[in-house]
From TrEMBL:
GO terms for molecular function: undecaprenyl-phosphate glucose phosphotransferase activity. Residues 280-459 form the Bacterial sugar transferase domain. It comes from Schaedlerella arabinosiphila. Its main location: membrane. NCBIfam families: EPS_sugtrans (TIGR03025), WcaJ_sugtrans (TIGR03023). The keyword Iron does not apply. This is Undecaprenyl-phosphate glucose phosphotransferase. Its EC number is 2.7.8.31. It is found in: Membrane. The chain crosses the membrane at residues 12-31, 43-68, 89-107, 113-132, 285-306. The keyword Transmembrane helix applies. It is an enzyme of class 2 (transferase). It is a multi-pass membrane protein.
Amino acid sequence: MIKENQKLLNRLQVVLDGLVIIASYVLAWYIRFKTGVFEQDPWALSLGFYMQLLIGIVPGYLLLYYVFHLYAPKRVLGRRLEAWRVMQANVLGVMALILLLYLFRQIDISRTMLFVFACVDIFGEVLERNIVRYILRRIRKNGHNLKHIILVGYSRAAEQYIDRILVNPEWGYYVRGILDDSMPHGAEYKGIKVLGTIDNLTIILPQNRLDEIVITLGLSEYNKLERIVGMCEKSGVHTKFIPDYNNIIPTKPYTEDIQGLPVVNIRHVPLNNMLNRIVKRTMDIFGSLFAIILFSPVMLGVVLIIKFTDPGPLIFKQERIGLKNKPFYMYKFRSMIMQKESDEEKGWTRKDDPRVTPIGHFIRRTSIDELPQLFNILKGDMSLVGPRPERPQFVEKFKEEIPRYMIKHQVRPGLTGWAQINGFRGDTSIRKRIECDLYYIENWTLGLDLKIIVLTFFKGFINKNAY
């Protein structure tokens, strides 16, 4: 039933996409030639002529949407990822259109109109798909269009999978139960019961009432994996495997194929690639120079205020641990009264800390005190984006308490980072912060850096946890 529903949904999605493409194309023509927004050309072609091009544009764009996996099930496909794929498909589509017009010497067709079409279609497709997503999730929340699954193996992976399903009922997954050899019959986790042993698959599978089998064996039971997969494949039921080592292997493991032998790398760090390091360092140099020029009036104003309101140095420097565990001195505008170095090492700043100066409260809350780190970036100690550096005594403490903590030192520390724009600054969970740092390290792209920099202006400057 689920497969038939998915096919029907895909057909409906194709029809809706086609209608949106046509509507966007007509609207783009109207905006270009009838609104007066753009200068009119005497040789402008009629709507009828432009409509003829839809004979190739509609199937071409639908094919692009298929290539960019826009007809994959929406159960766990994120809105942002779907919107990004729509944008990629449209950009590629309009580039292909312009190239074809150039090759066939079609100079009378407005390129401006095609660019407007791309923008309108991106907006229309994203809107239409979010409406479909909303309707589907409402239906699934009400108990319809559910995908029935059985978990094979009771483990941490099984518990984590159940947790996510229960928190997201709109995904439409219904867990019928768990099969496990070590747990007693009737034991349960959050209402999901153990129905029997793994051998009960031989009874359950022929009944053909399941949409998916999810293998969630514990690490000690992986010797059973081949037999379980064999039984599932004979039944034809779609099978998934959720490994019970997600605290060791990253979400997107880096795999190699050595003459048919799969090799999974424990950690994939894109910035180990020399070209990636050069690209990132180039962006750091030019970005920090631009930021220094842009914020120079702000920095000059802060220097003058600190100078005339509190005796002592303008810049505070503190030892931090950076790339490859090497120490460096990180710069900040001084926001606290002068104190002994031993007092500085006692701990983090507290709420209403008496050591913070009046101007210090403001510049800490707005992150202005961090601006001198732009010079750390120029020196090569830091990067515009990366995990925030920590003091040596806390590094020694956290590396014993938090698994994988030291991985953050495989890249340069940053002025801002993925953890900071997700709200993990100041007095927040260190473990959550490290999870964000590891995600950044393992998924680095230049686009992710640019995204973090942009979001920093909206989420990163004002910090309610900065005392």
